[in-house]
């Protein structure tokens, strides 16, 4: 059983990689965003990035820095299938996943303007924002000394493989295939 975690900057292509692994390799998908969305809806909070960050940080502070990912990992292990856990945001999450056999962390990145355009195109409920807000959100999530808060820069530095998504889907898929071949 392969366990792949994916981290990356906002709009870099994490979801595109997930969709590819599901459709071409039969991976099961476990989503931090989906996990948080359920809690946000239960609490009747607005479904936006601020709520996602706030609820995630609160859960990590109440439990452990790896709490959310550990909940998803339990589900993944019960499935017994190759799985991908999307969106790793703290080093504590990575540490918890590294305790498991067959874990690999991917990081994906792309040019900020291109990522913003992709965010607008996907038009999810949390993505109706200006470029300035996009930059502010990313800055807030890029570094933190608090282990319960997002630190995308540190997560990317811990990745086993870094993928560049500045070009076509096909070029991204070639990179994903190269990683999978190394994991065989």
Distinctive features:
alpha/beta; 55% helix; 184 residues; globular; 5 strands; Rossmann fold; five-stranded parallel beta sheet
Strand content: 5-15%
Question: Using DSSP, what is the number of strands?
Answer: 5
How many H/I helical runs? 9
Q: Strands of the largest sheet, in order across it? A: 2-3-1-4-5
Label the structural class: alpha/beta
Q: Quick one: overall form?
A: globular
Short description:
With 184 residues, the protein is an alpha/beta fold.
Descriptive overview:
This protein has helices at residues 14-25, 32-42, 49-62, 67-79, 91-98, 112-122, 131-142, 152-157, 169-183, and strands at residues 3-8, 28-31, 83-86, 103-109, 161-164. The protein has 184 residues and is α/β, with parallel strands linked by helices. The protein has one domain: P-loop containing nucleotide triphosphate hydrolases (Rossmann fold), CATH 3.40.50.300. It has a 5-stranded parallel beta sheet, with helices on both faces. Helix 2 (32-42) packs across helix 3 (49-62). The longest helix has 15 residues, at 169-183. The protein starts with a strand and ends with a helix. The model has no long low-confidence stretch (mean pLDDT 93).
What's the SSE blueprint?
Layout: E1 3-8, H1 14-25, E2 28-31, H2 32-42, H3 49-62, H4 67-79, E3 83-86, H5 91-98, E4 103-109, H6 112-122, H7 131-142, H8 152-157, E5 161-164, H9 169-183
Parallel strand pairs: 1-3, 1-4, 2-3, 4-5
């Amino acid at each position: 059983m392969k366990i792949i975690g994916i981290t990356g900057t906002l709009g870099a292509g994490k979801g595109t990689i997930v969709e590819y692994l599901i459709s071409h390799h039969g991976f099961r998908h476990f989503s931090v965003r989906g996990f948080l969305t359920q809690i946000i809806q239960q609490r009747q909070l607005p479904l936006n990035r601020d709520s996602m960050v706030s609820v995630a940080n609160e859960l990590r502070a109440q439990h452990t820095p790896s709490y959310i990912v550990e909940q998803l990992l339990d589900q993944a292990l019960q499935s017994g299938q190759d799985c991908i856990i999307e969106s790793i945001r703290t080093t504590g999450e990575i540490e918890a996943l590294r305790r498991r056999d067959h874990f690999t962390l991917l990081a994906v990145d792309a040019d900020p303007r291109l990522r913003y355009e992709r965010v607008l195109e996907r038009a999810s409920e949390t993505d109706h924002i200006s470029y300035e807000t996009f930059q502010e959100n990313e800055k807030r999530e890029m570094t933190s000394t608090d282990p319960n808060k997002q630190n995308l820069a540190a997560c990317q530095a811990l990745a086993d493989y870094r993928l560049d998504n500045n070009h076509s889907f096909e070029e991204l898929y070639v990179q994903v295939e190269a990683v999978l071949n190394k994991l065989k």
